[in-house]
């Protein structure tokens, strides 16, 4: 049974006390997924060609030397909706039983400033719905919230949303006790600070109506603390070095630079289709992993991202 008491010693207490609570959409069939199980149900490929190597959490980064762009491709035809894409079963407390579906990565920036990244993993992302059809679906989905602490107190929170996101002051957010609430959108798992509709057609602007709509609600409670691997990260320049708090949890998988899903299927693949001859495809590339999520960012938002830390709640 997943328990907060199982978290390793050394993980800062405030990282646990202020960890987000995530609410999944009740109709979302794709729940948080066990990271190791995802590796067991995928195989590495380079330019669609199989690589004769079966990685696990302790060997995944060896793929970095086997090609410039490695993809963890599904062993099953995703259009058959194999059960492993649906993720792990959640218990009454929001934990994912014996599955590890999250990673907590702590970056001590110095000067009493610490960034805590709460990474949520899903084996499948259902793309946006347009005219009753999904597009941009992909195997593998990494989303995250980041809390910046000053002297052990939270100051601001980042919510990842597709290739972008939003930042809010900690004080303005909805909370359960001290823990900020995150709403995960139906299918795409983009993170929002409020429930309801969120259109993401315009970069950095979310509206309650529009063409590309995410939907959130206070559905199924997910507590990543009960299902997480826990790490610290330091940097030599921009090169990360990861360490597990218990000294035993595998760290190798965090160094993987490839993609956690299939490479975009060619247009000739029968599973693929174009929408309105605009080059919009039903399936897209799988995502990169945690090391590519701006762990060494200067501000609350990833480096190079326009950033407004909102002092009030909004879509």
TrEMBL record:
Listed InterPro entries: Vps62
One Pfam assignment: Vps62
Name assigned to this protein: Vacuolar protein sorting-associated protein 62
Organism: Eremomyces bilateralis CBS 781.70
């Amino acid at each position: 049974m997943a328990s907060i008491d199982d978290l390793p010693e050394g993980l800062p207490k405030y990282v646990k006390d202020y960890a987000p609570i995530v609410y999944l959409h009740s109709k979302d069939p794709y729940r948080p997924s066990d990271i190791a199980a995802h590796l067991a149900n995928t195989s590495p490929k380079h330019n669609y060609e199989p690589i004769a190597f079966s990685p696990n959490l302790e060997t995944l980064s060896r793929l970095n030397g086997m090609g410039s762009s490695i993809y963890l491709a599904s062993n099953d035809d995703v259009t058959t909706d194999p059960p492993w894409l649906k993720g792990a079963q959640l218990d009454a407390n929001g934990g994912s039983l014996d599955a590890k579906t999250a990673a907590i990565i702590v970056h001590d920036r110095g000067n009493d400033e610490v960034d805590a990244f709460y990474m949520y993993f899903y084996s499948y992302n259902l793309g946006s719905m347009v005219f009753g059809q999904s597009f941009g679906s992909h195997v593998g989905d990494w989303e995250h919230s980041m809390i910046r602490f000053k002297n052990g107190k939270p100051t601001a929170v980042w919510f990842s949303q597709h290739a972008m996101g939003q930042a809010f002051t900690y004080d303005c957010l909805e909370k359960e006790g001290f823990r900020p609430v995150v709403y995960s959108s139906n299918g795409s798992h983009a993170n929002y600070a409020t429930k309801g509709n969120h259109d993401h057609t315009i970069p950095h602007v979310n509206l309650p109506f529009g063409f590309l709509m995410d939907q959130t609600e206070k559905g199924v409670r997910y507590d990543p603390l009960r299902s997480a691997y826990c790490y610290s990260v330091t940097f030599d320049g921009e090169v990360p070095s990861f360490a597990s708090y218990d000294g035993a949890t595998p760290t190798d998988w965090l160094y993987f630079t490839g993609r956690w899903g299939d490479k975009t299927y060619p247009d000739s693949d029968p599973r693929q289709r174009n929408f309105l001859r605009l080059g919009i495809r039903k399936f897209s590339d799988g995502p990169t992993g945690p090391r590519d999520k701006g762990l060494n960012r200067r501000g609350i938002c990833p480096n190079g991202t326009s950033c407004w830390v909102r002092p009030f709640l909004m879509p």
